[in-house]
Design brief:
604 residues; alpha+beta; Creatine Amidinohydrolase; 17 helices; Creatine Amidinohydrolase, Chain A, domain 1; 21% strand
Length: 604
């Protein structure tokens, strides 16, 4: 029997022993994180699915995994033989978990739904209850924290990695005062931060508790006269951590045990505490309610404050992207020469080599996510996982896609380049060009102040739509300053997110095309939102590219690009060469100059 089918069977046996009608598990952790630590990868352990976004429901006769368009091909492959069925989200016919449960148990007067309350947000739990409002059924949600630990006997513990502080250009005392002022304005006694990036930003702390994310697994409770950081899991022996903790205590931040928060809340009856239901877990929320604490739900002010980078952070991001660009040029040059020399290079070899070039850069702290190194059919999976063993070998034809990024002490990068390795089919060349056309059209956008990303998403899609092509993922996401490679509240996608783009925000620009079994194309830069001018019609905003790396123009069908797009590409390449050329060895500078040569003169 399949290993994962066995694990699902063991979960069902546990359900029968406890009279549970269903178990609902999310792919997150107690902090609503997009990327959880190994301990919280419960869905991967149960099903074998390795995608970053998935939720799971198991009943007596059904096991279903819900994930979005980025992972459909991957899920169909990885779930084969497990007995777990794929439920598609972000498609017109989607039926989400709350609605599916309501339909499944409509005839059951009191279904018992078990959840890992630590790893499910209060907002998700609420949505399940709300979905049952229209059926004659009254569900009972049982919170069973860490329920999978009964089966997962060698489950990893909660990580505690060395903690260090950073200079973000804004004192933490000022950030703590911002939170206190926010509480005064909302007439709350305090605010509880549960999102790890918000805590890291507020306290100017970093660690490596989660791979690729410089975050500390913790909670932060701020009241008028105290700031309590629930972070300590084990005795602190690391000297850097000790110095960081001393610095924080000197700023009035007390250090508490990570697992002490529930007890503190239980003793805080009568208080009103501001919380974000999207990141606060169901278990803690229920503890508040049962203890007489009044949760005041909403979005914390940290989310918006950290999305708008200050001048110190913006300059850091520019410098980080220069060093990252140098690493990328070294990599692309190495890749081209390797293919010309007919060396045997696998997808994994290429990913490792890129990591080595990045590691040579000053301030490098690791990758910002797992490098996607994909040739041909693998590139048709937007979130392809490059195999470490028996990885496909790059061949001297077709398209190779590399999506990667670095964490640096002064910034976070995220870049995708699709590279022709030899002869291309007309369809590969056309797809390559149309995606770059969409990328450029978004990068050239001019829009009035107050415009949300959803209003300009179509700029990147329209060139593809004209040829009846599209992509299922968002066009752009926010990026943190030496924090998460994905952050909100801003984005550029079709979802109706009203958050306006503001000067100082950073977003990605990454349209794509994916043809199953054939090839994939994605071109990605990070863009800084900037003010262009103000006039009698208002304040006008646009974008400045932060990413500095050439696009391979040899793959372009120039007839598909208009004059403005060609001129943008020439100006961008001129900036790339003028910025990176002086930092490269002479032979590499000459290679880059050739890659950045003007193409507008060659267009019809």
């Amino acid at each position: 029997m399949n290993l994962y089918a066995d694990r699902i069977a063991s979960l069902r046996a546990l359900m029968r022993s406890r009279d549970w009608d269903a178990v609902i598990l999310t792919g997150s952790d107690p902090h609503g994180s997009e990327y959880p630590a190994e301990r919280y990868k419960q869905i991967r352990w149960l099903t074998g699915f390795t995608g970053e976004a998935a939720d799971l429901v198991v009943t007596a006769d059904h096991a279903g995994l819900w994930t979005d368009t980025r992972y459909f091909i991957q899920a169909n492959s990885q779930l084969a033989g497990t007995g777990v069925e794929l439920h598609k989200t972000r498609v017109p016919e989607q039926v989400l978990i709350p609605q599916w449960l309501a339909a499944k148990f409509a005839d059951n007067p009191e279904p018992v739904l078990a959840v890992d309350g630590l790893c499910m947000s209060e907002a998700f739990a609420d949505s399940i209850i709300e979905a049952f409002a229209d059926v004659p059924s009254d569900p009972y949600i049982v919170s069973s924290p860490d329920l999978v630990s009964i089966l997962w006997t060698d489950r990893p513990g909660i990580p505690q990695t060395p903690v260090f502080t950073v200079d973000s250009g804004r004192p933490r005392s000022e950030k703590l005062e911002m939170l206190r002022e926010f509480c005064r304005s909302r007439r709350c006694d305090g605010i509880l931060l549960s999102a790890l990036d918000e805590i890291a930003w507020t306290l100017d702390v970093r660690a490596s508790d989660i791979e690729y994310n410089p975050l500390v697994i913790s909670y932060l409770l701020v009241t008028e006269d105290a700031a309590s950081w629930f972070v300590v899991k084990e005795p602190v022996e690391d000297p850097d951590t000790g110095r960081a903790f001393e610095e924080l205590e000197a700023d009035g931040v007390s250090l508490e045990r990570y697992d002490a928060l529930q007890d503190i809340i239980s003793e805080s009856g009568g208080m009103s505490i501001f919380v974000d239901e999207n990141t606060l877990n169901h278990q803690l929320y229920q503890t508040m309610v049962q203890s007489g604490v009044t949760p005041v739900p909403g979005r914390t002010p940290v989310s918006s404050a950290k999305s708008v980078k200050n001048p110190f952070e913006i300059e850091g991001m520019r410098q980080a992207h220069i060093r990252d660009g140098v690493a990328m040029v070294h990599f692309l040059h190495w890749l081209e020469k390797s293919m010309q020399a007919e060396r045997c290079v696998s997808e994994w070899d290429a990913a490792v080599r890129l990591g080595e070039f990045r590691a040579a850069a000053a301030g490098y702290q690791g990758d910002s996510f797992e490098t996607i190194s994909a040739f041909g059919p693998g590139a048709a999976l937007p979130h392809y996982v490059t195999p470490r063993h028996d990885a496909p070998v790059l061949e001297p034809h077709g398209l190779y896609l590399c999506d990667s990024g670095g964490q640096y002490l002064d910034g976070t990068t995220d870049i995708t380049r699709t590279v022709p390795l030899g002869d291309l089919t007309p369809l590969e060349r056309e797809d390559y060009t149309l995606v770059l056309k969409g990328h450029i059209d978004l990068a050239m956008a001019v829009f009035p102040e107050g415009t949300p990303g959803c209003r300009i998403d179509a700029l990147a899609r329209e060139p593809l739509w004209r040829f009846r092509r599209n992509f299922g993922h968002g066009t752009g996401h926010g990026v943190g300053w030496f924090l998460g490679v994905h952050e909100g509240p801003q984005d550029i996608r079709q979802n109706l997110n009203p958050e306006p783009l503001k000067p100082g925000m950073i977003v990605s620009d990454e349209p794509g095309i994916y043809r199953e079994g054939m090839h994939g194309v994605r071109h990605e830069n990070l863009l800084l939102c900037v003010e262009l001018e103000s006039n009698e019609f208002g304040r006008w905003l646009g974008f400045e590219p932060l990413t500095l790396c050439p696009f391979d123009t040899s793959a372009l069908d120039l007839s598909l690009l208009d004059r403005a797009e060609l001129e943008w590409l020439d100006a961008y390449h001129q900036k790339v060469f003028e910025t990176l050329g002086p930092l490269l060895p002479d032979d590499l500078a000459r290679w880059l100059q050739q890659k950045c040569r003007k193409i507008s003169n060659f267009a019809n």
